[in-house]
Amino acid sequence: MNETDQRIHLDRLLCDEMLQGLARWLRAAGYDTATVERGTDDRGVVESALEEDRMLLSRDRHLRHYRRLQGHLLLLRGNEEASIVAELNATTDINWMRAPLTRCMRCNGVLRRATVEELTRIPSGSRDCVEVAWVCPDCGRIYWRGAHVPKILRKLEYFQSLEPMSR
Question: Are 3 and 89 in contact (CB under 8 A)?
Fold first, then answer.
């Protein structure tokens, strides 16, 4: 068995309250990533992960005591964004360029192409430069390829290039 065979497969994810920022970046990379509502107790976090069949990403060491989470919990040690990303790169099959910008970074909905009518919601200063946009069917947020997109893609490429951190 080679090293990549031993890595944890990431598909449907759940980030706890401490990892809200990571959840947004995982969504930007195209991963189905739910988040726990603020104030949810450990039992509620565990139930959400199991009911939704999601891999729980957390730094909360207390969660390791929930035996039912076996196979559904990845405890992360890092505190800083770069160390958490490097740890994910080392322990999982993550691909930060999997499907960039195909999910709503706010609510996790799958984006669809905006209609002509929806394009009118883009601010007038940007609208003239926009030919194609995407909308989240869940929260209604509209996305277009503005100056922020190359910055997001560069950040995802940076994440992809980070050397895996040993556990």
Answer: no
